[in-house]
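Q: Give me the 3D complex with magnesium ion.
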Amino acid sequence: MSIEVRKVTKHYGTQKALNQVSFTIKSGEIVGFLGPNGAGKSTMMRIITTYLNADDGEVLVNDHDVKTAAKQVQSSIGYLPEHNPLYPDMYVREYLKFTADVYKVKNAKERIDEVIKETGLTTHAGKKIKELSKGYKQRVGLAHALLHKPKVLILDEPTTGLDPNQLVEIRELIRKVGKTTTILLSTHIMQEVEAMCDRVIIINKGNIVADDFLKNLKGDSNQEIEVEFDYRVEVELLSEIKKVREVKELSGFKYLLSFYTNEDMRSAVFDFAHDNGLKILSLNKLNRDLETLFHELTKN
Ligand code: ADP
Ligand code: MG
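A: Here is the predicted complex, encoded as structure tokens.
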């Protein structure tokens, strides 16, 4: 297991920022850590990266405990903090050299060249950091995080504040890096997760409210069928359709049926109409989109 978080609780004064948070991340995964502002994402990431202590609970990174083996954790983890702390007056290469010294990176010169290439900084390596666009500053932040070849990358809102072109480029870069590195990345935007991740952990007010693969969340397991009959039907009768989870009466003789199954439930609705002497005037199968799910899970 790359990251194991067990029942982590954290307060700031009397305010609870994390409430018994647990999750695990396997090696090789790219996981989105999604939640609205103030949900507790950065707090959790600071605890994982040893920059903050939890009040309670346990965190292991590559089997090292963040409390008792902070050094080992730091050497196996790369971290891009929320406000990427760069030295504006340093040149890109100079900054990476400085980082390499801090981390005692072996064969520093070759490794710096490698990372510069990998993050697409070749033409910018001789520039001052303050001269770079936000997108290129993020690349420098990523290069910094990757320099010591960490097995796990923690990226705190790596795409926030980028323009659409920069966004596409950084997403691509993260996906590329994710082929060889385990990544946990936070964001408050569902589309970011869809663009980069296989799995999402949703946090709201310090509580984990969902943890699943995207294909499960957006797949047929959240199936909804909108059906229109030629007559009014009792909701109770519709509730007898197999595997139906919820029935909502819409306007006219329309109903919204929710199912939680991978099986295509349209034929069950046709059977129901046939058995009850009803005609189906229209039928629409909808898959609940992730954006809606996210809003539902984080509205309170
Ligand atoms: P996110 O990164 O999801 O936006 P944070 O982890 O930054 O959320 O914050 C979680 C909660 O803890 C918020 O309510 C925030 O106001 C509070 N908080 C974060 N940092 C501090 C701090 N240093 N002192 C007091 N409260 C804080
Ligand atoms: Mg944050």
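A quick observation: The mean pLDDT is 93.
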